[in-house]
Structure formats: C-alpha cells, structure tokens
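hey all, quick one before standup. I had two proteins in the batch that finished overnight and I want to keep them in one place so we stop losing track of which output belongs to which input. First protein below, input sequence then structure tokens straight from the run.
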Amino acid sequence: MFQSRHFKHWPTHLPRKLEPPTKTIFQNLVVSAERFPEKTAIFFYGTTISYRDLLHQTESLAAYLRDDCHVKKGDRVILDLQSSPQFVIGYYAILALGALVVPISPMNVTDEINHYCTDSGARIAIASQDVVKEFKDALDQNFIDRLIVATYSDFISKYFTGEIPTNIAEEKISFNIVQVMDWSSIPQENVNLNKTEINLSDLAAILYTSGTTGRPKGCMHTHETIMRNIEGAVLWEGMSSTSVLLTTAPLFHVTGMQHSMNAGIAASGSLVILPRWDPKIAGELIERYACTHWANVPTMVVDLLAEPTVETRDLSSLQNIFGGGSSMPESVAQELFDRCGIRYMEGYGMTEAISQTHMNPPQDLRKQCLGIPTFDTMATIIDPETLRELGPNETGEIVASGPQIMLGYWEREDANKESFIEINGDRFFRTGDLGRYDEDGFFYISDRIKRMINASGFKVWPAEVEATLYKHPAIKELAIISSPDPRRGETVKAMIVLKGAYKNNTSEKEIIDWSREHMASYKIPRLVEFVTELPRSASGKIQWRLLQEDEWQQQS
C-alpha cells in the first residue's frame, strides 16, 4: 500500500506516529518561559529578549487587546508586520485570548487589505507604521475599529552599529487618527491575564492563499493542526533548547511561521531575526550567533554562497538547512555541502497544510525531491479527471491526508467541495500539483494543474492578478503567464490587448506603475507585452497555457 512503502526509509531515531498534542500554541511560550526564563528568545539588531520578557510583553499586549480593544475568543485580528519581535509578540498575544490570528504580507496594498478585513471579519489590526497608509481606507470605511501601530526601531539597540534597512530603522511617526494606537503606549506593568479556556480543536488562525478564482481564500487552522506540524518540525529537523534559528523566511508565511518562530519557541531555542533578506548580514549572523538551523527558500542559499564577504565566514555551526518552494540546484547543494558539511533538506507543503506534508529523511536526502509523507500523513497520486488512484511512477495529482490539513476555507463551501475528496474513507486534500512517487515512496513534482506562478518562493495566482488588472481603463483583455527568470526561477508576465482609444498612448511602464499601486510587489508583472489578440479555444476561453508554453520556448 502507498501508505507504508516509504517506511523503509523512515529515520530510525524517530517514531512513525506522534501522540496528539496536549498544549496549545500559546502554552508553548509559557512552558519555554517557565523552563528557561533568562534564556534569550530573540536576537534583533543588538537587542536580546529573554523568554521571561517575551512572555511578559505578550501578556501585556493580550491584556490591552482584551480590555481596550474588546477582543474575545473567536475574534479575528489582522497581523501585518515584517519578521520582528512585534510579530512574535502580536502572534502569541492574539492566541493567548483564544482569538484568531490573520497574518498578511506587509507588501499588500489597500485593495488587498480591504478584502482581508471584510472577508475575515477582523475589527482590529496590528501593523507597522510604514503600511498605515494602506489601512486608511479600511479605517475610513469602518472595516476595522482599531489599528495598533508598531515601530520596528523601538526594538533596535542604541548600541547597534551595523546596517539596517530604511523602513526598519525609521524613527517613530505620529498619526493624528483617532482609531490609531501607538504600540509603545501600551501599559507594560504586571497584568492579570485570566486564562481563556482554549481547546485544541478551536480555530487559531486564518491564513490567506489565492487560487484559480482570483480572490484570496482563508485557510482555517486549529491549534491542533498547527501544533501537529510544529511538533513534527522540531523532531524531524532535530531542534532542542540549544538550537539557534536564523529567521529569514517571512513569519507571515507558513515556512517561517512554523519552521522558525513556532518550532523554535516550542523547542525553547533562540530566534535570530533578519526582517529583510541580505546575504552579507545573514553570513555575519550565522557566524556571530552560531546559528544551527535555517529555514529558507533555495534562492537564499544561492545568494549566501555567491556573496563575496561570506567566503571567509565560519558557517560550521549550521546543522540543518530546510526549505522548499522550488528545487535546489545540484551545483549549489554541492557547494553548500563543501562549505558546511551538511546536505540541503527539501520539503513540500502548502498553506492548507500549515507547511509540510512531505520531508526528505535526514539520512537519505534526495535532490529535486519532495521527500516522503511526514508523521501521520498519507499521500498518493490520482488521475485528476477520473480521481482513480495511480501507482508508482505514474504522473497525476498529488493528494494528501493528515492531522495538519486545514478544516477548510473560511466561508467558502464551494471551494471546499472542489478541494477535498474521499479515498478509502479518508479525507484527502487536492494540491493541484502534478507529480509521482517512486518504488521507495519518495514524491517528485512535475507540473501544476492550477495556474500558480512560483517567483522566488512567493506564490502568485494569475487569476487574482488578472482580476486586479482588469480595473485598468486601458485594458480590454489580458492573460497572466509565467516567464523564466534566472534569479526568481519564474516571473510574472502580462499579455495585454488594449482598448482602441488607448493603443497609442499606453506604455508597458504605465501598466507596471499602476500595478504597483494596486497589488503586492511580488505579484506585479515584471514583463508586459501588448498584443492584438489572445488565442481562444472553441468555447471562447483564453488559452493561457499556449501563451505560456510559447514564452518558455522562446526564452529557452
């Protein structure tokens, strides 16, 4: 059976099944603070935060959310921050109240933020001061009642002399808006945070992902689904209280959230937070803090090894480097081994699974391979049309079942019906990825059924970009496709038919500049091509796949 074929390659030091979790996510922080109160939980630009202090600040914010913002169990709270101490504190404070954290990318702009607020029903948001302008419309239209604004530089040591990104170093800005509250004004005295009864089956987070229908959908995760992957990551990647995690993957994304922040805190390790990727500084941090674990996307490893200043850095402390989103080039993997003596651990997951469903076993790391199903997880390949289960080395759609899979999409029963199927009485999630598994039970990806573009690990859904671009007055019709990119792997390209009146007075730059105002930066078309018409099928549908295949052939 497909469920057991991979067990002959299972790590011999690990159990095949895990006991159900007994703690909620917030309790991980409480336990770590009780075990190691003076241990450094976070390093951030010269500032160190102990577990005792991290818990205290978390409880102070939770008390403010409860008493002044009237946040209660089941409420949703937007978290719009880059990786920072404030993200960690905000995340755990929301969960301490039994509320749902709704993390979103700081690259989102007004239209996207309005959707997240109205779709989730969140009335409170926590954001950095550099994105307040994007929340102004939500405040004006009463989509949210209160915006708590954080200044990253509040957590930077005055003795730190290294390089700091401009938006991180920015001094505090005062906003004359009645609904806006400055994070630093929140009382920090000892608080009485009455324990909220939280069950593992209670919802903990709504994480948004897009898809074929355009508008992002919220993935509903409970404390148990999230805890299942946290505990799995700690064991599989060999984390302990001595672990030091280089935190470069964004914490609003499941890779950074689970494999850096949540797993690190559950293991009572230390997080070395770098909010904006910089290979020069990353190399310095690995050496200075003797980082042992690093979750990333492969392009970060490429950048690190190509950075001249890193050539003389001591990277020998690294014990586990994990990532996914795209395949690791074999030559880079070999260079990493030559430098650090460790192999890159590739995995496979998605927001709907709060990260991993597959991981390469530590003793048998295979290249360009998704790995094997992780703890308590089943996966197989089906024919996407007939839903018939396929055998080894037959290509079809990857489907997965496990305790980490989301309950479903927030208020989207239509999407739930399309996304789940039953096999032998078990509920499986349809990933939309085409792949196969071999005789050993290792899985490999080959293509996508869904129109997803993977740009440096960021998922871009063409239907969402198209829906936004159609608001531009000059565009008659368009198709978003992927184009090969030497650094990003693939990038976003817009094939556009202009309306007659705009044909001679609309430039590619104008489309790109307009896009910058209406969507997150990673979604913006980097390439724009104007055409007289787009190919259509007999039923009139735009044949985007033909355009994409032609694009890749021309660029190869």
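OK second protein, same deal, sequence then tokens:
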Amino acid sequence: MLRKIKIVVISSLFLFLLLVIGVYALRNTLLNCYVSGKTQSLSASFGLAIHYEKLAMNGVRTIQLNGLTVVPQQRDTLLQLHQLEVKLDFWSLLGLHINVSEVNADGLNVSFVKGDSLSNYDFLFKAKKENTDILEEENESDFSDRAERMLHLAFGFLPSNGEMKGIRVTHTKGDTVTAIGMDSLIVSNNIFNGTVTVTEKQVSGRWTISGTIDNKEKNVMMKICSATNGKVQLPYIGNYYNAGISFDTLAFSLAESRKDELLHLQGKAEVSGLSVFHQTLSPDTIDLNEARFNYLVHISKEYIELDSATTVLCNKLKFNPYIRAERKGKWHLTASVNKPMFNSQELFSSLPGGLFSNLDGIRSEGRLGYHFFFDVDMNKVDSLRLESEVTTDHFRIRQYGAVDLRKMNAPFIYTAYEQGEPVRSFEVGPGNPGFVPLDSISPLLQMSVLQSEDGEFFWHRGFRLDAMREALIHDLKVKRFARGGSTITMQLVKNVFLNRKKNIARKVEESILVWLIENGGLTTKDRMFEVYLNIAEWGPNVYGAKEASEFYFAKQPSQLSVEEAIFMASIIPKPKRFRGSFTPDMRLRESLSGYYRLLAQRLAIKGLISEEEAAAINPQVVLRGRATETFLQPTDTVLMPLSDISFPLTSDTLQTKAIAPK
C-alpha cells in the first residue's frame, strides 16, 4: 500500500514538473495567443487596428513589448509605443495575482486629434454592451468589494522601480495643440521623480512631480509644483472651456486598509496659491491662499461614509463635514456640519478673494457657531429633513466691506438687469417721480404680494427653511429645478447688491448678505418691503408698483381694486409673460379662477375684505393702461401655467400681519 502511494506521489510530481516545463517552453506561444484574442476582441468592439512587432516573455516574470500601435479605423494614430519591459513580482504570480515590480518604457506617444465632428478617440465614449446577468451581478456586489478590486488593480500596476522615457501626450483641435511631455520619470525603491513640460500656443511651463508608491502597503503620495518657481497652470481648459486653474503646490496622499467588513481610505489633499476662473463660479478670478483636506472614508457593503474626523481648512477657517451615502433600493443621503463657536473674523478673513466682492474688507468682532443637517431618503422623499442655524455671541460688524450693507436705508440708485446685462437705472427714493412710499400703496396689493411671494416676511429672519424643504421635495420628485424657496429678503439682496449673472458664488454670497442684514437689523422690514415694491419687475421694462399700476390700469397703486391687486401679485414670478394670463380679447383665463379664490380667502382672513366680498370675487380685470397696446402687436408669448405662480398658502401664513407694521 505504501509503495502504491509513493508511486502516485512520484507520478504526480513528475506530471506537475512536465506541466511546468511545458508551460515554460510554450510561454511565448500562450502569451501571444491570449493577447491576440484580447486585441481581436477590442478591435471588433471599437473599430481599432492594434499591431505590435514583438511580444515575448523573458524568463518567468519579464514581459517585453516592442512597436505597439493603436489606430482607430479611418482616424489618426492614437498610440505609439517603441518599447516596454514589465517585470512581475514572482511570489504574487505563484498566488495567481499580478503585481508589477518594475516598468521600463521608451517612446510612448499618445495623440488625441479632434476634427469638426469626428475624433480619433470617439470609441472611448461608446457604450459597451454587457450581458444583463453581469450587470445585475455588478449592481448587487458591495461597495467595499468593488472599491477594493479597483484599488488592488491600480496598486498592482504601480511599479516599485523603473524608468519611463520619451513620454508625450498631445491634443490637437484646429490650430490649437496642447502637448504634455516627460523626458524621464524614474522610480527607485518606491520613490519617483520627474519633470513635465507643457506647451500650448504661446504658453509653456515646466513642472516637477515627486512622491512615493508602495503597492504592498497600498499607499501613494504625490506632489506637483513649478520647476521655475512660478505657478503651475493647467493647460487645455483655458482654450476649450474659457476657464483657468493655477496653483503654487498641489499634494495628495492615499492609504488603503481593511478592518472587518469596512474598507478605509485615509489621506490628504492640499493646495497653496490656488487661482480659479470660470463664469459659472464667479465673474472674477478666485484666489485661495491655502486649502487642506484631511479625509477618512469608510466603505462598507451598503454605504460610503466621509467620517466626521475629516478636516477641511480654507485659509483660516476649519470645519469637520460628515457625509453618508447609502443604497437600499434608492439612495439615502445624509450630510452635516457642526462648527462650535469661533472668532467671527476667521470666517470673513477666509473667504476666497474675488468670490464675494461685497464682503471684501469686512471686519467683525464676536463669535459665531453653525449647525447644518440634511437628510433625504429617495425611497420616501417626503421625510426630507433640512436644518441650518447660525448662533452668535456678541457679534457685530465693525467695518463694512466694498459695499455698505445699510445702503437701502437711504435713497440709492438701483440698476435692473436682464440676462446679466444692465438695462435701466433709477433712484429708489423721493427724487424719483416713480417712487411711492409704502403707506401710499394699497394694503390689498401689499397683502396679495406677501401671500404670493413670502407670507412670513415680517416674522422670519431672512430664510424660510420650511419653504426650502418643500421646494427641495418637489424638485426631487419632478427631477428638475422647478420651484425655489426664496424669501423677499433673498430677492432683494439678489437684485440690490449682486449682479444678476447666475453663478454658484452669487448664491452663497446672497445667503451671507441676507443673514447679515436680517440678523444685524441693518434695514427695517418696512423699508425692505417698500424697496421691494418699488423695484419689482411687473412687465417688460416696468418696475415698481407705481409704474405697474399705471401700465395696466392707468391708476395709482393706492386705488387698486381687489381683483387688480391679486392680478398684479400673480404676475411677479413671470412678469414678461403677463399676456399669457389673458385671452386674445384681453379677458383673464379661467385657469386663474382658483388662484383668485384662494388669495381672496386669505385677504378676508386678514380682515382686508369681508367674507361676502371674497365669496363674490370675480376673476376679471379691465386693462386701461399701456398694457393694452401690447395686444395689438404679434407675440410669441407662452401661456403662464399656474405652476409659475408661487404662493405659500399654508397654515403658518395666517400669522402674517394684515399690512406692513408701522
């Protein structure tokens, strides 16, 4: 029996040895067969011609590739590689894992060419058809497993040693050529260094890149800075996106670890001397002296979480954000920021230059604290929660910035904008014949506007979180930005202090200005409402209650009837489309009947009209002013749907005072 076992063991070892010898002897044949199959598949799927002069395996762990070219069908050559030598980690190979220990490359040229309608990289954006079962399996796999596989793949191909020479990447579109070249990138014992040369039209620059790679410990660090003591200016985006990004130094690090079922990613990203320009952010260049992001991310089977131990530093301001995205059916997103009391000037000194022009140079004293919480489960959108609160301790403004935020207290020049361009300027004050004091405006119009635009204006402090929450819920349900939650104060600040060009910075600056004006009591509610009614757009080039009353009814704003007041309130959301409220014979459309009845009921509750008057409301007005002339002209005016008329007719609206308090 023992003899038979020995024979079996010896035979097995002999067969295994023969197999190893056979695989070794046929390694080049097997390698070329495998690669040939893959290249044929890629060629068929994406219309590529892939050729190479030589592919061979030297020894048991070195692969050599010479003369590789990739040419899309009827397009310019995309990739050329003179020579590549890859050495694999032997022990990883025994475990059937691929880990690259050394890479030596020479003469890599990647050329992206964009024509009028075609490019040699179109295939990269083609949707690849996949088997339905594979897709379903991928969707069911956990986040941590998928992230770990991608990271292992990335780390597996990062070499510990090697040299890459003659690397050049170009993008050509018309007469604009963007070229990024690297004469040599040397990796020695996990440490890499190289110099990058960038040219684009008349712009050129040289960068140094350095850092460490450790594919066994799974961490990487990288730093980019100018080789000439200037700024690193990113190419391409300026010519093609009318944007600009430059910086002094950029550094990044990432380390991966796993504990139990959680995958942890930890590291930092920091930049100094950052300058950013794009019209969607701000009309001016944004300058940020220092920004640092020390992050800790947890990835489990069902969620991805940015730990609250994460620190964000923006100049002098530091805070700890928390974000969690979980998928159970649909996404469930939670985000929060809790900033304990801090010196208020840290906030204003940390605002990036060029981002908030009205706040440049502002000085304050005292302390501020901030709490923010947002939670939405897309499985039950109505449960959305939104919290935002600023706390103060002896806070006050010592010096105003570029603009005096008290400007509305006295007569001032208001400029109206259309599509970001100024169209008309006029004084908001007695010096303007079109100005009308608040007490000369019909209480019916005042209350109709309040009920339509901001029912709690005289009670809130600039923001209505309930209205914002309801607007978010509605927008998420219809999957578009269909409704906003702006208060009258927010509309005032947007029109009086900010240019009308829509960008991200404007919305943030608007929120800061609203808070400063409302919580500092810089302008009374009466005066703000008076200004609002005198600058509101009520039609094409029609601004203010006096012009509007004359334009529609040839009346003064103190003489308006109930129906006329409700009509004027109804067109504020879309003033240039006022004709959509009428039939061709200048009669109000039946679709407005419900709106009229609701506003009339609210006016009755406020004591401005009787219940009998509200019940007998007749949704009709007679145009007598210059507005009648527009019906004699051809137009492409679109009908104004009721969804464009926003009015907060909720139970809390009943708290609104009958008229603006004195």
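Flagging for whoever picks this up: The first helix runs from residue 2 to 25. The radius of gyration is 34 Å.
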